[in-house]
C-alpha cells in the first residue's frame, strides 16, 4: 500500500556509507529494502521505496522513502537486516520553497 495521502506522507532520505562494498552488494541491499518495503505495504503499512541511488565513488547507497512515519522506515531496515548511517526528513524543491522546516537528521542504526 502506498502512503495513505501524498499530502500526509513524509519523504525520508536514508544514507549508507560502506567503504569496501561493491556496487553489486549495494544493489543487492537496494533490492532487499525494496522487497521489505513492498512486503510491509502489502501488509497495510503506508510506506514505499521511491528511489535508491548508488554512488560508486563514495561506496554509498542513498534511499528515498515515502512513509507515514520514520518508525516505518526504521522497520523496513530491521526487516531487511540492514543498518544505515543517517535518516533525515527530505523535502522536494517545491516543499523547500514553501518554507516547510527541515526535520532533524537521526543517528546511525546498527
Task: Describe the protein.
The chain is of the alpha+beta class and 110 residues long. The chain has one domain (10-97): ORF SCO4226, nickel-binding ferredoxin-like monomer (Alpha-Beta Plaits, 2-Layer Sandwich), CATH 3.30.70. The protein has three helices and four strands. It has helices at 23-42, 70-80, 93-97; strands at residues 10-17, 47-55, 60-67, 86-90. It has a four-stranded antiparallel β-sheet.
What is the mean pLDDT? 84
Helix content: 25-40%
The third-level CATH topology is Alpha-Beta Plaits
Annotation field: number of helices: 3
Unreliable segments of 5+ consecutive residues: 1-6
Count up the domains.
1
Return the CATH architecture: 2-Layer Sandwich
Largest sheet: 4 strands, antiparallel
- Placed side by side, the strands forming the largest sheet appear as 2-3-1-4
Q: How many strands appear in the DSSP assignment?
A: 4
Please tell me what the overall shape is: globular
Structural class: alpha+beta
Strand content: 25-35%
Distance between the termini: 27 Å
CATH superfamily: ORF SCO4226, nickel-binding ferredoxin-like monomer
Taking all Cα atoms into account, the compactness measure Rg is: 14 Å
CATH class: Alpha Beta
Order of helices and strands: EHEEHEH
Amino acid at each position: 500500500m502506498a502512503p495513505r495521502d501524498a499530502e500526509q506522507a513524509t519523504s525520508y532520505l536514508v544514507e549508507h556509507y560502506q567503504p569496501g562494498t561493491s556496487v553489486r552488494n549495494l544493489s543487492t541491499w537496494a533490492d532487499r529494502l525494496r522487497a521489505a518495503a513492498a512486503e510491509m505495504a502489502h501488509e497495510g503499512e503506508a510506506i514505499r521505496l521511491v528511489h535508491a541511488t548508488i554512488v560508486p565513488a563514495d561506496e554509498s547507497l542513498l534511499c528515498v522513502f515515502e512513509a507515514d512515519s520514520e518508525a516505518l522506515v526504521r522497520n523496513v531496515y530491521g526487516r531487511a537486516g540492514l543498518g544505515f548511517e543517517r535518516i533525515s526528513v527530505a523535502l522536494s524543491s517545491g516543499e523547500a520553497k514553501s518554507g516547510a522546516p527541515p526535520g532533524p537528521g537521526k543517528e546511525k542504526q546498527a
